[in-house]
Design goal:
2 domains; alpha/beta; about 35% helix; D-Maltodextrin-Binding Protein, domain 2; globular
């Protein structure tokens, strides 16, 4: 069976443009006085975010140029190497770990209070240097022909039960999985995290290259369970496959319930900070937030925005894990641990 792609067709772009133009930005009018341009380093996929940026860039009094070279962490490495010579003026990244690394290296500018106030405190930097633009939830998907939701564990420790030997699939090189492991390290300590990883490997999980492959494996019956992000499941509902694959959420406070974010910040060395700040305001506009929800099934971070495509619960109702997302910046230590235990 052919699975739906996470990013759906962009035939609705014209309609979303009307929404974006009608809604404007929630942070007030632009304070940008003249034309010019900004350069955005985007670690987010061009196919997903380029149409969204096009929706509102025509309404701005400056030009938005976007560099999509490499993934989020490659872009961060590039910026750190460039230092104060970086031409980037906005960083738009896929996860909090990348944003935290830039913050730790003092590459980001503190943001105005009116922007910070639009995003719940748990989904922005404690230093006020970056904000989430959308959120994603770690979940467990399952093959409904083999198991029911009631039979699944409340937390990740239940995945170590021998009953699941050889039946769980995951993507160890994926940034979202590595952020989950980082959250595990932060909340339980390195020794406990290493022990969990070692025991998980002893249960013969099926390692795959990416989350799309994880979903395919569970759908086809190659695996019974799959660790992935929530937005890979929602398109299955539209395709009529929800009876084949179910979604299971871990208990609030469990590391497996991590809610991570995509987000953005203004580069400290930008020569066009007012324009860069205005770009961030647009990412939090109702039109842009609706785009993330409708096109990618990501959770809007601005209250009051809902999806017209998916039945997403409000982000405030997603229990998640109580963690300071700035602490996900220690992903380098996570990768070392994953290598040491033989997972990557």
């Amino acid at each position: 069976m052919s699975l739906p792609k996470r990013v759906l067709s962009f035939v609705v772009v014209s309609g979303l443009l009307a929404v974006a133009m009608a809604c404007g930005d929630p942070g007030g009018g632009s304070d940008v006085a003249g034309r010019g341009s900004i350069l955005v380093y985007s670690g987010r996929d061009e196919g997903l975010v380029a149409p969204m940026i096009d929706l509102f860039s025509g309404e701005l009094d400056f030009t938005v140029d976007v560099d999509y070279t490499g993934n989020t962490h490659a872009q961060v490495g590039r910026m750190l190497a460039e230092g104060d010579d970086t031409p980037a003026e906005v960083f738009f990244g896929q996860d909090a770990a990348a944003l935290g690394l830039l913050d730790d290296n003092e590459m980001l500018e503190p943001l105005p209070e009116d922007i910070l106030a639009l995003v719940p405190a748990r989904y922005r930097s404690g230093n006020g240097t970056w904000i989430a633009t959308s959120a994603r939830e770690r979940v467990l998907i399952f093959n409904s022909a083999r198991v029911t939701d009631a039979q699944l564990p409340e937390g990740i420790d239940g995945l170590l039960d021998p009953r699941w030997r050889g039946q769980i699939t995951y993507a160890p090189t994926n940034a979202s999985f590595q952020s989950f492991v980082t959250a595990l390290r932060v909340t339980r300590g390195d020794e406990a995290a290493r022990r969990w990883l070692t025991n998980f490997l002893a249960n013969d999980p099926i390692a795959l290259p990416d989350n799309g492959s994880v979903v395919q494996a569970v759908t086809s019956g190659q695996a019974t369970l799959g660790l992935t992000n929530h937005y890979y499941w929602y398109p299955l509902v539209l395709a009529g496959s929800a009876s084949t694959v179910g979604l299971h959420r871990f208990t609030a406070g469990d590391p497996g319930a991590l809610v991570n974010v995509a987000g953005a910040g203004v580069v400290k060395y930008s020569d066009n900070k007012p324009q860069a700040i205005e770009f961030l305001r647009e990412l939090l506009s109702e039109g842009a937030q609706a785009y993330f929800a409708d096109e990618a099934a990501e959770y809007p971070v601005v209250s009051g925005v809902t999806s017209t495509t998916y039945e997403l619960p409000p982000l405030a109702e997603v229990a998640g894990l109580d963690i300071d997302l700035d602490e996900l910046a220690s992903v380098a230590q996570t990768r070392t641990m994953l290598s040491e235990v033989g997972m990557v």
